[in-house]
Amino acid sequence: MTSAPLAARLTIPSGPLFFPVTAYGPDGSVDLDAYRTHVRRGVEAGAAAVFACCGTGEFHALTPEEFERCVRAAVEATEGRVPVVAGAGYGTALAVRYARLAEAAGADGLLAMPPYLVVAGQEGLLRHYREVAAATSLPVVVYQRDNAVFTPETVVELARTDGIIGLKDGLGDLDLMQRIISAVRMEVPGDFLYFNGLPTAEQTQLAYRALGVTLYSSAVFCFALELALAFHQALGNGDERTVEKLLDGFFRPFVELRDQGRGYAVALVKAGVRLRGLDVGEVRPPLHEPTEDHVKQLAELIERGYALLEEAK
Protein backbone atom coordinates (compact mmCIF):
# COMPACT_ATOMS: atom_id res chain seq x y z
CA MET A 1 0.00 0.00 0.00
CA THR A 2 1.28 3.46 -0.92
CA SER A 3 0.14 7.02 -0.46
CA ALA A 4 2.08 8.32 -3.48
CA PRO A 5 0.13 10.71 -5.74
CA LEU A 6 -1.88 9.11 -8.52
CA ALA A 7 0.29 10.50 -11.33
CA ALA A 8 3.40 8.97 -9.78
CA ARG A 9 1.68 5.62 -9.32
CA LEU A 10 0.61 5.53 -12.97
CA THR A 11 3.77 6.83 -14.62
CA ILE A 12 5.50 3.44 -14.89
CA PRO A 13 2.69 0.86 -14.59
CA SER A 14 3.65 -2.58 -13.32
CA GLY A 15 0.79 -4.18 -15.23
CA PRO A 16 -2.27 -3.45 -17.36
CA LEU A 17 -4.75 -0.74 -16.41
CA PHE A 18 -7.86 -2.70 -15.44
CA PHE A 19 -11.34 -1.52 -16.48
CA PRO A 20 -13.66 -4.00 -14.74
CA VAL A 21 -17.18 -4.71 -15.91
CA THR A 22 -20.00 -3.98 -13.49
CA ALA A 23 -21.68 -7.15 -12.22
CA TYR A 24 -25.46 -7.54 -12.13
CA GLY A 25 -27.49 -10.26 -10.43
CA PRO A 26 -30.37 -12.30 -11.93
CA ASP A 27 -32.84 -9.54 -11.05
CA GLY A 28 -30.72 -6.91 -12.83
CA SER A 29 -29.50 -5.15 -9.68
CA VAL A 30 -25.82 -4.53 -8.99
CA ASP A 31 -24.10 -7.61 -7.57
CA LEU A 32 -21.41 -6.19 -5.30
CA ASP A 33 -20.08 -9.58 -4.21
CA ALA A 34 -19.39 -10.66 -7.79
CA TYR A 35 -17.99 -7.21 -8.53
CA ARG A 36 -15.55 -7.38 -5.60
CA THR A 37 -14.45 -10.83 -6.75
CA HIS A 38 -13.88 -9.52 -10.29
CA VAL A 39 -11.85 -6.56 -9.06
CA ARG A 40 -9.87 -8.62 -6.56
CA ARG A 41 -8.91 -11.19 -9.20
CA GLY A 42 -7.63 -8.44 -11.48
CA VAL A 43 -5.54 -6.83 -8.75
CA GLU A 44 -4.11 -10.17 -7.64
CA ALA A 45 -3.22 -10.99 -11.26
CA GLY A 46 -1.13 -7.84 -11.61
CA ALA A 47 -3.30 -4.87 -12.55
CA ALA A 48 -1.54 -1.55 -12.00
CA ALA A 49 -4.78 0.38 -11.39
CA VAL A 50 -8.52 -0.17 -11.33
CA PHE A 51 -10.72 2.17 -13.38
CA ALA A 52 -14.14 1.58 -11.81
CA CYS A 53 -17.47 2.46 -13.42
CA CYS A 54 -15.97 3.78 -16.62
CA GLY A 55 -16.89 2.79 -20.19
CA THR A 56 -16.40 -0.96 -19.81
CA GLY A 57 -18.11 -0.70 -16.43
CA GLU A 58 -21.29 0.75 -17.99
CA PHE A 59 -21.05 4.13 -16.30
CA HIS A 60 -23.93 5.29 -18.49
CA ALA A 61 -26.25 2.63 -17.04
CA LEU A 62 -25.65 3.26 -13.31
CA THR A 63 -27.66 5.43 -10.98
CA PRO A 64 -25.64 7.75 -8.73
CA GLU A 65 -26.37 5.46 -5.78
CA GLU A 66 -25.21 2.36 -7.64
CA PHE A 67 -22.14 4.21 -8.85
CA GLU A 68 -21.10 5.17 -5.32
CA ARG A 69 -21.61 1.63 -4.04
CA CYS A 70 -19.55 0.16 -6.88
CA VAL A 71 -16.68 2.61 -6.42
CA ARG A 72 -16.68 1.92 -2.69
CA ALA A 73 -16.66 -1.83 -3.39
CA ALA A 74 -13.71 -1.43 -5.76
CA VAL A 75 -11.80 0.52 -3.12
CA GLU A 76 -12.54 -2.21 -0.57
CA ALA A 77 -11.46 -4.97 -2.96
CA THR A 78 -8.14 -3.33 -3.85
CA GLU A 79 -7.27 -2.72 -0.19
CA GLY A 80 -4.95 0.12 -1.20
CA ARG A 81 -2.71 -2.13 -3.29
CA VAL A 82 -3.39 -0.13 -6.48
CA PRO A 83 -5.19 3.15 -7.13
CA VAL A 84 -8.88 3.26 -7.97
CA VAL A 85 -9.97 5.79 -10.61
CA ALA A 86 -13.71 6.36 -11.05
CA GLY A 87 -15.66 7.65 -14.01
CA ALA A 88 -17.50 10.98 -13.95
CA GLY A 89 -19.65 12.37 -16.72
CA TYR A 90 -22.85 13.82 -18.20
CA GLY A 91 -23.44 17.59 -17.91
CA THR A 92 -21.30 19.69 -15.62
CA ALA A 93 -23.64 19.57 -12.60
CA LEU A 94 -23.98 15.78 -12.74
CA ALA A 95 -20.29 15.27 -13.49
CA VAL A 96 -19.50 17.29 -10.36
CA ARG A 97 -21.97 15.19 -8.38
CA TYR A 98 -20.38 11.93 -9.56
CA ALA A 99 -16.92 13.33 -8.82
CA ARG A 100 -17.94 14.09 -5.24
CA LEU A 101 -19.57 10.68 -4.83
CA ALA A 102 -16.33 9.06 -6.03
CA GLU A 103 -14.30 11.08 -3.54
CA ALA A 104 -16.67 10.12 -0.71
CA ALA A 105 -16.34 6.46 -1.73
CA GLY A 106 -12.55 6.62 -1.40
CA ALA A 107 -11.44 6.82 -5.04
CA ASP A 108 -7.91 8.02 -5.81
CA GLY A 109 -8.79 9.84 -9.03
CA LEU A 110 -11.33 10.54 -11.75
CA LEU A 111 -11.68 9.73 -15.43
CA ALA A 112 -13.76 12.61 -16.81
CA MET A 113 -16.03 11.31 -19.57
CA PRO A 114 -17.32 13.44 -22.46
CA PRO A 115 -20.30 15.68 -21.65
CA TYR A 116 -23.70 14.26 -22.48
CA LEU A 117 -25.21 14.79 -25.95
CA VAL A 118 -24.12 18.32 -26.80
CA VAL A 119 -21.28 19.18 -29.18
CA ALA A 120 -19.62 22.07 -27.41
CA GLY A 121 -16.93 24.52 -28.47
CA GLN A 122 -13.45 24.52 -26.99
CA GLU A 123 -14.24 27.33 -24.54
CA GLY A 124 -17.22 25.45 -23.11
CA LEU A 125 -15.34 22.17 -22.89
CA LEU A 126 -12.50 23.84 -21.04
CA ARG A 127 -14.89 25.42 -18.56
CA HIS A 128 -16.66 22.07 -18.04
CA TYR A 129 -13.49 20.15 -17.16
CA ARG A 130 -12.15 22.96 -15.00
CA GLU A 131 -15.34 22.90 -12.94
CA VAL A 132 -15.12 19.12 -12.55
CA ALA A 133 -11.48 19.41 -11.49
CA ALA A 134 -12.29 22.15 -8.97
CA ALA A 135 -15.12 20.17 -7.40
CA THR A 136 -12.92 17.72 -5.45
CA SER A 137 -9.33 17.15 -4.40
CA LEU A 138 -9.09 14.15 -6.74
CA PRO A 139 -6.70 14.27 -9.71
CA VAL A 140 -8.49 14.13 -13.06
CA VAL A 141 -7.72 12.42 -16.36
CA VAL A 142 -9.76 13.88 -19.24
CA TYR A 143 -11.15 11.44 -21.81
CA GLN A 144 -10.98 12.63 -25.42
CA ARG A 145 -13.53 10.93 -27.69
CA ASP A 146 -16.84 11.44 -29.50
CA ASN A 147 -18.07 14.96 -28.72
CA ALA A 148 -15.06 15.92 -26.59
CA VAL A 149 -12.22 16.46 -29.06
CA PHE A 150 -9.62 19.08 -28.18
CA THR A 151 -7.24 21.33 -30.03
CA PRO A 152 -3.62 21.33 -28.86
CA GLU A 153 -4.22 24.80 -27.41
CA THR A 154 -7.11 23.54 -25.28
CA VAL A 155 -5.06 20.62 -23.95
CA VAL A 156 -2.33 23.09 -23.00
CA GLU A 157 -4.92 24.95 -20.92
CA LEU A 158 -6.16 21.67 -19.42
CA ALA A 159 -2.57 20.81 -18.47
CA ARG A 160 -2.27 24.20 -16.76
CA THR A 161 -5.40 23.51 -14.70
CA ASP A 162 -4.90 22.49 -11.09
CA GLY A 163 -5.98 18.90 -10.60
CA ILE A 164 -5.91 17.78 -14.24
CA ILE A 165 -3.04 15.33 -14.67
CA GLY A 166 -3.58 13.66 -18.04
CA LEU A 167 -5.45 12.98 -21.26
CA LYS A 168 -6.88 9.64 -22.35
CA ASP A 169 -7.33 9.42 -26.10
CA GLY A 170 -10.22 7.42 -27.50
CA LEU A 171 -10.23 9.21 -30.85
CA GLY A 172 -7.24 7.60 -32.57
CA ASP A 173 -6.06 10.63 -34.56
CA LEU A 174 -2.30 10.18 -34.21
CA ASP A 175 -1.50 13.42 -36.02
CA LEU A 176 -3.61 15.34 -33.50
CA MET A 177 -2.05 13.44 -30.62
CA GLN A 178 1.46 14.26 -31.81
CA ARG A 179 0.56 17.95 -32.01
CA ILE A 180 -1.04 17.85 -28.56
CA ILE A 181 1.98 16.16 -26.99
CA SER A 182 4.35 18.60 -28.66
CA ALA A 183 2.34 21.68 -27.63
CA VAL A 184 2.05 20.58 -23.98
CA ARG A 185 5.73 19.64 -23.84
CA MET A 186 6.71 23.14 -25.02
CA GLU A 187 4.15 25.16 -23.07
CA VAL A 188 3.70 23.21 -19.83
CA PRO A 189 6.88 21.28 -19.03
CA GLY A 190 6.25 18.48 -16.58
CA ASP A 191 4.77 15.03 -16.31
CA PHE A 192 1.38 15.32 -18.01
CA LEU A 193 0.12 11.78 -18.62
CA TYR A 194 -1.24 10.34 -21.87
CA PHE A 195 -3.26 7.17 -22.28
CA ASN A 196 -4.29 5.12 -25.30
CA GLY A 197 -8.00 4.70 -24.63
CA LEU A 198 -9.14 3.12 -27.88
CA PRO A 199 -11.23 -0.06 -27.59
CA THR A 200 -8.93 -3.09 -27.33
CA ALA A 201 -5.99 -0.69 -27.02
CA GLU A 202 -3.44 -3.48 -27.40
CA GLN A 203 -4.23 -3.46 -31.13
CA THR A 204 -2.96 0.13 -31.53
CA GLN A 205 -0.44 0.37 -28.71
CA LEU A 206 2.62 -0.08 -30.93
CA ALA A 207 1.62 3.10 -32.77
CA TYR A 208 0.97 5.00 -29.55
CA ARG A 209 4.29 3.92 -28.08
CA ALA A 210 5.98 5.57 -31.06
CA LEU A 211 4.48 8.84 -29.80
CA GLY A 212 5.76 8.18 -26.29
CA VAL A 213 2.36 7.06 -24.94
CA THR A 214 3.03 4.00 -22.79
CA LEU A 215 -0.20 3.89 -20.77
CA TYR A 216 -3.22 2.06 -22.20
CA SER A 217 -6.51 0.64 -21.03
CA SER A 218 -7.10 -3.10 -21.26
CA ALA A 219 -10.65 -4.45 -21.41
CA VAL A 220 -9.25 -7.85 -22.41
CA PHE A 221 -7.72 -8.01 -18.92
CA CYS A 222 -11.29 -8.46 -17.64
CA PHE A 223 -11.58 -11.97 -19.06
CA ALA A 224 -8.18 -13.07 -20.37
CA LEU A 225 -5.88 -11.80 -17.65
CA GLU A 226 -2.86 -13.89 -18.59
CA LEU A 227 -3.08 -12.86 -22.26
CA ALA A 228 -3.31 -9.16 -21.42
CA LEU A 229 -0.51 -9.46 -18.88
CA ALA A 230 1.75 -11.38 -21.30
CA PHE A 231 1.21 -8.72 -23.97
CA HIS A 232 1.95 -5.91 -21.50
CA GLN A 233 5.15 -7.60 -20.33
CA ALA A 234 6.31 -8.42 -23.87
CA LEU A 235 5.70 -4.84 -24.94
CA GLY A 236 7.69 -3.50 -22.00
CA ASN A 237 10.54 -5.96 -22.55
CA GLY A 238 10.80 -5.34 -26.27
CA ASP A 239 9.79 -8.93 -27.02
CA GLU A 240 8.55 -8.28 -30.55
CA ARG A 241 8.01 -11.94 -31.34
CA THR A 242 5.50 -12.42 -28.52
CA VAL A 243 3.80 -9.09 -29.25
CA GLU A 244 3.33 -10.02 -32.90
CA LYS A 245 2.16 -13.54 -32.07
CA LEU A 246 -0.51 -12.25 -29.69
CA LEU A 247 -1.58 -9.48 -32.06
CA ASP A 248 -1.90 -11.85 -35.00
CA GLY A 249 -3.38 -14.80 -33.15
CA PHE A 250 -5.66 -13.14 -30.60
CA PHE A 251 -6.04 -9.35 -30.54
CA ARG A 252 -6.66 -8.74 -34.24
CA PRO A 253 -9.27 -11.55 -34.48
CA PHE A 254 -10.87 -10.28 -31.27
CA VAL A 255 -11.15 -6.76 -32.69
CA GLU A 256 -12.71 -8.16 -35.86
CA LEU A 257 -15.24 -10.09 -33.78
CA ARG A 258 -15.87 -7.06 -31.54
CA ASP A 259 -16.70 -4.99 -34.61
CA GLN A 260 -19.51 -7.38 -35.57
CA GLY A 261 -21.95 -5.70 -33.21
CA ARG A 262 -22.63 -2.24 -31.79
CA GLY A 263 -21.76 -2.05 -28.13
CA TYR A 264 -19.65 -5.21 -28.28
CA ALA A 265 -16.71 -3.31 -26.76
CA VAL A 266 -18.65 -3.84 -23.53
CA ALA A 267 -21.05 -6.70 -24.22
CA LEU A 268 -18.45 -9.06 -25.69
CA VAL A 269 -16.08 -8.36 -22.81
CA LYS A 270 -18.80 -9.16 -20.32
CA ALA A 271 -19.56 -12.37 -22.18
CA GLY A 272 -15.86 -13.22 -21.92
CA VAL A 273 -15.94 -12.78 -18.14
CA ARG A 274 -18.87 -15.19 -17.93
CA LEU A 275 -17.10 -17.68 -20.20
CA ARG A 276 -14.15 -17.62 -17.79
CA GLY A 277 -16.37 -18.70 -14.91
CA LEU A 278 -17.58 -15.54 -13.14
CA ASP A 279 -21.28 -14.72 -13.52
CA VAL A 280 -21.40 -10.93 -13.86
CA GLY A 281 -24.80 -10.87 -15.54
CA GLU A 282 -25.78 -9.32 -18.84
CA VAL A 283 -25.37 -5.75 -20.07
CA ARG A 284 -28.11 -3.26 -19.35
CA PRO A 285 -30.09 -1.55 -22.13
CA PRO A 286 -29.52 0.17 -24.44
CA LEU A 287 -26.66 -2.30 -24.96
CA HIS A 288 -27.57 -5.84 -25.99
CA GLU A 289 -26.04 -9.26 -25.60
CA PRO A 290 -23.83 -10.83 -28.29
CA THR A 291 -25.39 -13.51 -30.47
CA GLU A 292 -24.93 -17.16 -29.53
CA ASP A 293 -22.64 -17.65 -32.53
CA HIS A 294 -20.48 -14.68 -31.56
CA VAL A 295 -20.13 -15.98 -28.01
CA LYS A 296 -19.10 -19.37 -29.43
CA GLN A 297 -16.49 -17.65 -31.61
CA LEU A 298 -15.24 -15.74 -28.56
CA ALA A 299 -14.84 -18.98 -26.58
CA GLU A 300 -12.81 -20.51 -29.42
CA LEU A 301 -10.69 -17.37 -29.69
CA ILE A 302 -9.92 -17.35 -25.96
CA GLU A 303 -8.89 -21.00 -26.17
CA ARG A 304 -6.63 -20.19 -29.12
CA GLY A 305 -5.08 -17.28 -27.25
CA TYR A 306 -4.17 -19.43 -24.26
CA ALA A 307 -2.73 -22.04 -26.59
CA LEU A 308 -0.40 -19.35 -27.92
CA LEU A 309 0.85 -18.72 -24.39
CA GLU A 310 1.55 -22.44 -23.95
CA GLU A 311 3.51 -22.48 -27.19
CA ALA A 312 5.63 -19.57 -25.97
CA LYS A 313 6.75 -21.40 -22.81
From TrEMBL:
Matching CDD domains: KDGDH
Keywords: Lyase
InterPro entries: Aldolase_TIM, DapA-like, Dehydro-deoxyglucarate_dehyd
Reactions performed catalytically: 5-dehydro-4-deoxy-D-glucarate + H(+) = 2,5-dioxopentanoate + CO2 + H2O
Ligase among keywords: no
EC class: lyase
Pathway in which the depicted protein is active: Carbohydrate acid metabolism; D-glucarate degradation; 2,5-dioxopentanoate from D-glucarate: step 2/2
EC number of this enzyme: 4.2.1.41
HAMAP family tied to this protein: KDGDH (MF_00694)
Family note: Belongs to the DapA family.
The protein's name: Probable 5-dehydro-4-deoxyglucarate dehydratase
Protein source organism: Streptomyces purpurascens
Taxonomic lineage: Bacteria, Bacillati, Actinomycetota, Actinomycetes, Kitasatosporales
